[in-house]
Amino acid sequence: MTATMNDTPEASSPTPVEPAAPAPAPAKPKKEKKEDSFPVFLIKLVIVVAIFRSFIFSPFNIPSESMLPRLENGDYLLAAKWPYGYSSYSLPFSVPLLPKRIFASQPERGDVAIFKAPPGNDVDYIKRVIGLPGDTVQMINGVLHLNGQAVPKVKVEDFVIPVSPNTDCLSAEFVVTEADGSQTCHYPQFRETLPNGKSYNVLDLGQRDADNTVPVVVPEGQLFMMGDNRDNSMDSRFPAMEGGGIGLVPQENLVGRATVMMWSTDGSANWFLPWTWFTAARWNRIGGTF
């Protein structure tokens, strides 16, 4: 008898099942950037402007003619704040946060510098640096003398400036009526050259009391400052007094060095007549450097 084969298949091993991957966590919603409120923006803006004005550049306007011919009444310039270092006078409202000048550097003869004027030390003046510590400064017959030597002074063509709301000739002797009927001021002008080679123009209107002074030795830490309009400038030739001269200027009072002219107007603009904003501008002066 033939044996029969067992047709029942062998039982197979179960197929392993991989565990399911964990479901991804739901994405967190992105936080929307919160916009600053206007007061916060305003505070930030004030801080940025204060830093810029205190340590980089600060604007100044010229309210007088004591620095003619270089600076005219109605000029607006930028002064660099870093050349002479920083003191409390560099800060807005002269806030007393710096006990002494930091990063101090001495000016050069001929610099046009802004400083707090003695004796009050609360008003910004702009003059030219003439005498440094150790220098002897004297005027003799209208000629500047430094350390016993006359500073070269050469006559050049007259300085001419139109009469305007910002410019009124000091005396009728300087007034000239032009062919078109307009009036101009004609001032005697001279080229002065300091020992370091710095050269600039000054006005000399004739014999005045300040044309002859006693010799002054500039002490350490102070400066002898003069206006380029030699006969119309209350400067270091006159003792410091309220409403008068300024005497010698402490270097601690330095605020900045004139750098670039950013605007100039003859004062004839009328806010209610927009076209006069342009006709009053002295376009040829804008952008000039010192």
UniProtKB/TrEMBL annotation:
Mostly located where? membrane
Pro residues composition-biased segments: 16-27
Which segments carry the region annotation Disordered?
1-31
Q: Which InterPro entries match?
A: LexA/Signal_pep-like_sf, Pept_S26A_signal_pept_1, Pept_S26A_signal_pept_1_CS, Pept_S26A_signal_pept_1_Lys-AS, Peptidase_S26
- Give its E.C. classification number: 3.4.21.89
- Which residues act catalytically here? 66, 127
Q: State the annotated membrane topology for this chain.
A: Single-pass type II membrane protein
Compositional bias of kind Polar residues: 1-15
Cellular component (GO) terms are: membrane
Q: Which UniProt keywords apply?
A: Hydrolase, Membrane, Protease, Transmembrane, Transmembrane helix
A GO molecular function annotation here is: signal peptidase activity
The record, for CDD domains, names: S26_SPase_I (cd06530)
Reaction(s) catalysed by this chain's protein: Cleavage of hydrophobic, N-terminal signal or leader sequences from secreted and periplasmic proteins
Q: Biological process GO terms, please?
A: signal peptide processing
Q: Residues in domain Peptidase S26?
A: 41-263
Q: Any idea where this protein resides?
A: Membrane
Entry's transmembrane regions: 38-60
Task: Say which domain of life the source belongs to.
Answer: Bacteria
Q: Which Gene3D superfamilies match?
A: Umud Fragment, subunit A
Q: Does the keyword Hydrolase apply?
A: yes
**Protein family:** Belongs to the peptidase S26 family.
The name of this protein is: Signal peptidase I
Q: Organism, per UniProt?
A: Novosphingobium subterraneum
